[in-house]
Amino acid sequence: MAYYSRRKLKPREEEESGELNIVPYLDILMNLILFMLLSITGLASFGILNVSAPSYGAPSTTVTPPESSEQNRLVLSVLISKKGHFVNSENAILGSQEGSPTIPLKGDGAYDYAALNEQMVKIKSAFPAETKVIVAADPDIPYDALIQTMDSLRETKDASRRILFPDVTLGAL
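The chain above was modelled as a monomer; its predicted structure follows.
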């Protein structure tokens, strides 16, 4: 007498082949997202330059600056041109002759960033509380010249690394 087991008599159900396992895909995607977020936040700190854009419009009438600070206020601006750097204050161009730059180009045609830094040290010693400077450049000036000018305005180049004018505003010509 033959015995049949119930398992053999029961028809077999076929496995579904249409199901997709997306767990490995989600695992890879989460790792990539975390990697990109961490790398962006880490690399963003290397390329930060604090620069404020010029404001367009009338000044606010609600806030009036104290009158005592108006006497010692310096509105310093530096213009980068093909001739060199023009350093201006509110009332005068700080140059030897009218029309000539304050810091002319070197003999080889390069900008003299060391002389610009020395000029900023002199101005900072006369106005120690001032931190703002306006930087403007001709349209055909290389971007590298703008960045190196801003670096020369921010701190001294000697070993002391004293802060000069860290609040840079880009101006339009």
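The two ends are 107 Å apart (CA to CA).
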